[in-house]
Structure prediction request, 390 residues.
Amino acid sequence: MSLHSHMNVLDFTLQSLLRRKFKNLGIIAVFTFIVFIAGSILFLSYSFKREAMLILKGSPQLLVQRMSAGRHEMVPVKISKYITGIPGVSSVEPRYWGYYYDTLVKANYTVVAASTPVSENNRLLRGRLPGKDETGVAALGRGVAKARFVDLDGTIALLSSAGDLLEFRVVGIFESESELLTADLIVISGPDIIKLFSMPAGMATDLAVSVGNETEAPVIAAKIRAEFPDTRPILRKEIIRTYDAVFGWRSGLIVTLFAGALVAFIILAWDKASGLSAEEKKEIGILKAIGWETSDVLEMKFWEGLVISLSSFLLGAILAYLHVYFFGASLFAPALKGWSVIYPDFRLVPFIAPYQIAMMMALTVIPYIASTIIPSWKSAITDPDEVVRG
Prediction:
């Protein structure tokens, strides 16, 4: 078949689509909406996972927490001496941090000591971090600063566990490669955090263990657990796996909420696959009667399905991209970020892997093209006179 013949088939296909433009526009609208939802969820969830990986790049290979009645408790700092002596352990750093509920804005803050590493990816937008033993000063995440209407050299007051009102002068405001980490963050000195949360002497929130060879971390964790049965060693890869599971579960929850739209698309594809309309069958019969081959009819239907599905896919994918990366994914972001009052205000870095596009096309474009070609093939192999007469 010559190139000219292929062009004639394509031209006829486009003319056929225009003759049924209202029906095809309806299909394109539904198809685009489905791709928009799927694309938005896929782009957003994978971008959040990438942001989480950026955070966890600088986290300790191993965390040691103490458990009591299934809940996280303060851990004695003195057990650091034993852990340091385990072969393969580079260092052990006590970490002091906790959650503070602010009754003024009804939000939870994450408060950490200045000696506690937050992440290798942090940088300050303005100002500086408090000194290790410098009291009465704090560095805030942008979400906290915005919620409490404070700026550099302003003051923020926090109520301690003992009922004392502690005032801190703001010496820095955070910006981060991933604001998921620092939006609700407050950094103060070690003595101040101990006073704020009334931490007992010789106790820390948890222990950060640095391991020379990360493949040895599970063995080291097992030794710590065997020596101190009331502790829970947590590997970095376990935290990464948890983040992955959480975002995957929340993505699935959003898909479930839009199950009605997905069902509509399935019904649409099933309707296409169950058979052609009388007008379409008659058109195929006439084409066969005037000399078209079965292969020509199948090529026409292939182009018809490809034009509709690919146009819908591209339009839906573009809208999903704009929604996620230019408009902050306003429809789905709160469900994936969590239920915090202070949402991180940041623009996600575009992260689109080829397999994401391939997976979306496999779930939408290919089934639609198949549902267009199969019933057309059945009509094309039938006697033209029988098809035209119905």
The chain has two domains: 3-55+245-389, 62-234. The mean pLDDT is 77. The longest strand covers residues 165-176.
